Every structure is written in C-alpha cells, then in structure tokens.
Amino acid sequence: MSLINEILDYNKEFVETKQYQEFLTTKFPDKRMVVVTCMDTRLVELLPKAMNLHNGDAKILKNAGAIISHPFGSLMRSIIVAVYQLEADEVFVIGHYDCGMTGLNSDNVIEKVKARGVSDEVIDTLGHAGIDLNRWLTGFNHVREGIEKSVNIIRNHPLLPKNLPVHGLIIDPETGRLDLVDSGYDAKAE
C-alpha cells in the first residue's frame, strides 16, 4: 500500500470515529504565543511536551533550523499575522542541539539536487537570475548563532511592537531540556 493510501485510510477511520473531538479548539492560541522551531522529526511530540503545550496553546511554525532567513519572508509574515490577527503576545525561537543545519554544506546539497535530476542549466539559470544557492543553502556554525540571528531579526522588525518579548532557546532533542539563550523580558528592559 502506498503512503498516501495508508494515510487516507487511517484518516477516514479517524473522522468516522470522531477522534478529532479531543483536539477541538479555536484559531487563537490559548497561551498567546508563537513558537518558531526546527522541522526535526525528534521535536514533533517532544517539544510541545517539554514546554507543557497542548493542542490550541500556541502557533507553531517550523522550518529547517528555526532560521528566519529574510525579514519579509513567509515565516516572518506568519509571525506578524499571529501577533496582530491571532493575539499572540510572545515569540519563542527554539533551535536544537545536533541540528542538520549546523555546518550545512551547500555544495553537497546542490550535488544531491543534481543527482535527483535538476540540470546544470537550471542551476546556472538561477545563478544568472541573482539567486545565490550557496548562500541560500547555508546553515550556521553553531545552533546558538542561528537562534541569536533569528531572534534579532524578529526583535528588530519594523512591523512588530518594540515591547514584544522574543525569546531564544535550545532544546536537547534527546531529553527535552530547554536552555535559555536570550530572554525577551531582559531585552525589553533595555
């Protein structure tokens, strides 16, 4: 059976047996928070449990490395919408130890892209269009560096209120221990 059929079969039973009822909530985060975190599979259930988050408590945004790479990209837009439209009052940027974005080798990624059928012509065309794939596919040297950069972009965004607490943390993907990198409350006091 294909993965999509397996998912759809399960989903049909999930809906028919009304298993969704325990997850009913509103679109507004009960704890009035936004979490920006990594897409790492180890964090899917661990991070919410480690933070005592339940369905409906937070807006959780995920990408590779919890990196805000552009102040006017889609991740930043989601944060702005969560703050102004969905009543979130705090932002938590949470990276993790042993992240795949640490030391990401863009040349290696590009070689894998080519191995999966993307031609040199397409790569060259993107370069001529001003897209620097090596820069775009770069991670960070240490997870703390990535968290600090993302926190700084959010905290200094011209469309966000200056008193918005933006916190930076790192989670241990094995134990769930959270290490504080930057308290948004301390930054507000400055």
Automatic annotation (TrEMBL):
Catalytic activity: hydrogencarbonate + H(+) = CO2 + H2O
PROSITE patterns, A to Z: GATASE_TYPE_2
Similarity field: Belongs to the beta-class carbonic anhydrase family.
Originating species: Paenibacillus roseopurpureus
GO MF term list: carbonate dehydratase activity; zinc ion binding
Positions of Zn(2+) binding: 38, 40, 96, 99
Glutamine amidotransferase type-2 domain segment(s): 99-190
Phylogenetic lineage: Bacteria, Bacillati, Bacillota, Bacilli, Bacillales
Main EC class the enzyme belongs to: lyase
Keywords, in A-Z order: Metal-binding, Zinc
Keyword Zinc: yes
EC numbers: 4.2.1.1
Cofactor note: Binds 1 zinc ion per subunit.
Claim: Zinc is one of the keywords in the record: yes
Pfam family, one: Pro_CA
Protein name: carbonic anhydrase
Required co-factors: Zn(2+)
